[in-house]
Specification:
Blueprint lengths: L7 H12 L10 E4 L3 E4 L18 E6 L5 E8 L11 E3 L10 E9 L2 E9 L6 E7 L32 E2 L6 E7 L10 E5 L8 E6 L17 E2 L2 E2 L1
Antiparallel strand pairs: 1-2, 3-4, 4-6, 5-12, 6-7, 7-10, 8-9, 8-11, 11-12, 13-14
The structure holds copper (II) ion.
Copper (II) ion binds next to strand 8 and strand 11.
Length: 234
Amino acid sequence: MRNGIGRGVDESREQDMVAAGTSVRAGRAAAAVAGAAVLVMMAGGVGGAVGGDTGGDTGAGSNVGSGGGFWSRSQASFAPPNAFIASSAITYDTKRVPAAARIEIAQQSTGSGTVVGARLRGLLPSHAYGMHVHTSPCGADPEAAGPHYQHRADAQADPANEVWLDFTTDAKGNGSAQARQTWNFRAGGARSVVIHDEQGGAGDRLACFTVRFGSYTPPTAHGPGSGYGLYGRV
Ligand SMILES: [Cu+2]
């Protein structure tokens, strides 16, 4: 990634990745991580830049860089709550979120904030869906996911204080969304995304995907980003 001066976020991210022992190639590198999890580097933000399909039905990968940045990508196919093979993605309404529709959520967190991206396939064509980050993991009961994650608890329910990922599918039933915030998630505070039957922050819950969103940890006194480079103090 050849970013000019002034692209400090990307630069520090790359530094994190190198320091963590992961090779980076133009934002499309997929590196196998222990435990068959897959970490995908995304260039220039999430959303449309999410890398290739890793092939599995369900997959998740994440990484905490030594500079405190956090990456994750999770994907799954939707299944009803009573499916023989349980999924981390549950559909409560198979008419509007068909079983086997796919979802992928990517997150990037740095000292500058958080970007959450979503890609979906196999939904109703040309259909408006609402979607947000919620506080709790999904369950058989749509309410299990709890309320919207809020940056300032009990504050305004709007896209600045929450993570809204409303999207409208194309003619093939595919959709994508991205939300960019200047803040980061509290550790363990954001655990799912819920798809709703309408946009704008309300609506019945059609489906849910359990995602372990990460938080940002500022660099410690001796980590890279605090004056120490790969070859010593810089
Ligand atoms: Cu919601």
